[in-house]
Specification:
two-stranded antiparallel ribbon; 92 residues; binds zinc ion; mainly alpha; 2 strands; disordered C terminus
Length: 92
Amino acid sequence: MNFKKCSRCGNFYLSKGDVCPKCSSKDSFELTTFKTYIEQNGTENSIEIISQELGIQVKHLNRFLGYEEFKNYVNDFELSKPQSKNNKKVEL
Ligand SMILES: [Zn+2]
């Protein structure tokens, strides 16, 4: 039997996914929130900023980016990170 450690609460559990059954509903809610955010706002903001805006921890966002459904966005984040800090923010 393979026990896995939950990425959210640290409890051990026996099922698929990165989080235990107890955390899975909150985790999938945050994943949906993150996905919706990217669809509406693109990937101009860094993970740190998105984390603050959505109230989702950076470590979870980074984990979501490892998922198949975010495959297309990962490169965007890596490309936009160095520039977005200086250029785009000033217009606010
Ligand atoms: Zn958990």
